[in-house]
From TrEMBL, chains A, B:
Source organism superkingdom: Archaea
Family the UniProt entry places it in: Belongs to the isopentenyl phosphate kinase family.
Keyword Kinase carried by entry: yes
Protein function: Catalyzes the phosphorylation of isopentenyl phosphate (IP) to isopentenyl diphosphate (IPP). Functions in an alternate mevalonate (MVA) pathway leading to IPP, a key precursor for the biosynthesis of isoprenoid compounds such as archaeal membrane lipids.
Name assigned to this protein: Isopentenyl phosphate kinase
NCBIfam families: IPPK_Arch (NF040647)
Keyword DNA damage found: no
Transition state stabilizer, annotated site positions: K16
EC number: 2.7.4.26
Assembly description: Homodimer.
GO molecular function, one term: ATP binding
Alphabetized UniProt keyword annotations: ATP-binding, Isoprene biosynthesis, Kinase, Nucleotide-binding, Transferase
Cited Gene3D superfamilies: Acetylglutamate kinase-like (3.40.1160.10)
């Protein structure tokens, strides 16, 4: 069996200009692609998009700044559960046996912000033929109440622990772009793209792409970044967009 | 810090004669008691009552008989999430910092039906001042799809792993009853009550009380079984109903 971990970007499946608003057409489009795919084991992770982010910033919660206010937890987590229910029901309409794994129920961070995410239930779900669905969420954090865990962190943690064969990021960009805005087909070392992406810490400048590439080079499984119109190709085993393999 | 694990019986907080119906008055009553309590660390677990049970039997799912039908999973789990949202919102109205831990997201059974329930996130939630709330749910089960995990199993697993100081079962009966229907104040060995309860395997006859008492005698923490009007006394540190301490 071959395991694929697929991230559906929050800005792909939601309308990022309107709070708590789906991009229903795009969600249908990606759900069609997942429903039509002939693949073995699949874990899906979706981002927060316009559901989680504005609730998180209203409450001042980020990956590093926490809150112990239960209203903040319920507000952010509740918005993400709502988005998750939309994603699940669109998948069920296409006979994808998707089941929810709420990250807040299972994950935690210690006082060094290290994420712990037990995955035995995910492995068993896969073995029983289900498609576990996770999403960016709040996570309890020792000494800080709750902070945010991103979909990307969950992808990395699941892929590493379950020894995934392939990782895909379905995003709003067609891949990692070079200085002429052309897609770089493959990245095998950070040095080769440092000129384009800048230092890997400068996530502000690059919209997170630098840090993402650096993290994916360490993953131990090949990862592809591609746009929604390449999702079917990715699920068919092709390497659309940018393939990152350290 | 002292940890209390409290089970709210499904037949206490729901109207067991009507599918998917709360006993709203009783839920308010127990939420008042929890909201007024002066206790350190508290984990709440609630049963399924009229929400989970009839969906589970419609789909033929029990603790031992499984299903791989995603519609069954979503139906049973969805009903329990609905009940859980009622419980959480009544607690929030009383300023109890209750947060959801969905058992299906975290637990699993292996092929020997052994339950695995990671609790690091629950321990961290307690440390951050939250009140984790779990409930009887579906659980993925190696070789069987999903089966049911009861609230009682969750109570036992959490109490044992987190070394609880006290365990309480708020139920529809005032305690374990003797042959004259009087409450037995304390049970310290199974032999002392075998005449009344019968063999501990004969759960059909006793409505599960025999197996429950046998399991609680093994728990390593004192457990009390009592009716809702004794909940405040229990949370105040008293020993209403039947105290079981092996």
């Amino acid at each position: 069996m071959s395991l694929t971990v697929l991230k559906l970007g929050g800005s792909v499946i939601t309308d990022k200009d309107r709070p708590d608003t789906l991009d229903g057409e795009m969600l249908d489009y990606v759900a069609d692609a997942v429903g039509d795919a002939q693949i073995d084991d699949l874990v899906l992770v979706h981002g927060a998009g316009s559901f989680g982010h504005h609730h998180a910033s209203e409450h001042g919660v980020s990956k590093t700044v926490g809150s112990s206010d239960v209203a903040a937890v319920i507000d952010i987590h509740g918005a993400m559960e709502t988005l998750d229910q939309f994603v699940l029901s669109r998948l069920h309409e296409r006979d994808v046996p998707a089941v929810p794994v709420h990250p807040f129920s299972v994950a935690s961070r210690d006082s060094d912000a290290e994420l712990s995410l037990p995955v035995q239930q995910i492995a068993t779900m896969l073995g029983e033929g289900f498609v576990p669905v996770l999403y960016g969420d709040v996570v309890v954090h020792e000494g800080k109440g709750v902070t945010i865990v991103s979909g990307d962190e969950l992808v990395t943690s699941v892929a590493r622990q379950l020894d995934a064969d392939r990782v895909g990021f379905c995003s709003t960009v067609p891949g990692v772009l070079d200085e002429d805005d052309a897609v770089i087909p493959e990245i095998t070392s950070y040095e080769s793209v440092a000129d384009v992406l800048g230092e890997s810490e400068s996530t502000d400048v690059t919209g997170g792409m630098a840090g993402k590439v650096a993290a994916l080079l360490e993953l131990g499984a090949p990862a592809s970044i591609f746009a929604p119109d390449d999702l079917t190709a990715f699920l068919d085993g092709e390497n659309p967009g940018t393939r990152i393999d350290g």
